[in-house]
Amino acid sequence: MGSMAAIALAGIKKQLSWNSLREVCDVTLRTTTMVMFILLGSTAFSLVFRGVDGDRFMFDLLSSIPGGVPGFLFLSMAVVFFLGFFIDFFEIAFIVVPLFVPVAQELGIDLVWFGVILGANLQASFLTPPFGFALFYLRGVAPPEVTTGHIYRGVIPFILLQLLVLLLIIVFPGIVSFLPSLKL
Known about the structure:
This protein is mainly alpha-helical. It has a domain at 53-178. It has helices spanning 2-12, 18-51, 54-63, 68-84, 89-106, 111-125, 133-141, 148-154, 156-178. Helix 4 (68-84) runs antiparallel to helix 5 (89-106), helix 4 (68-84) runs parallel beside helix 6 (111-125) and helix 6 (111-125) packs antiparallel against helix 9. The model has no long low-confidence stretch (mean pLDDT 83).
């Protein structure tokens, strides 16, 4: 739907040509290929990791973190937030998240809620320097007089707001996940 709408808009603005369509298809193919190679690489990594019982080691390590559920949530959110500084969603989703989900399930954490806080956490981490992906998207559309330093300083309130939202998601809906006997 999105690609059809983009083609229609380009046609309406009289910017649609076979050459531009070919370029867009080439970029789309390259991006899709890159994502597929990331998926294949992470799958190969996961198979080798499981083959040497790395998943069992990580499960035992993560499930024995002091503090139980709050300790696990703090560590997993800190790791995902930090990794979001440097790598994109696909690597985190295909390599790191599968290590956390079995532990979250074992600890009795609602997996839908866990997915929501992971998503909110990733969104906040993609705004952070030095390699916040959202910052690079903004840099690409900002006028030349707006420097990268301006963007880095300007994003601080938004990072704090995202972290506040993450905290609210954890504290309020999380209470229901921690206390199954509480029926609301």
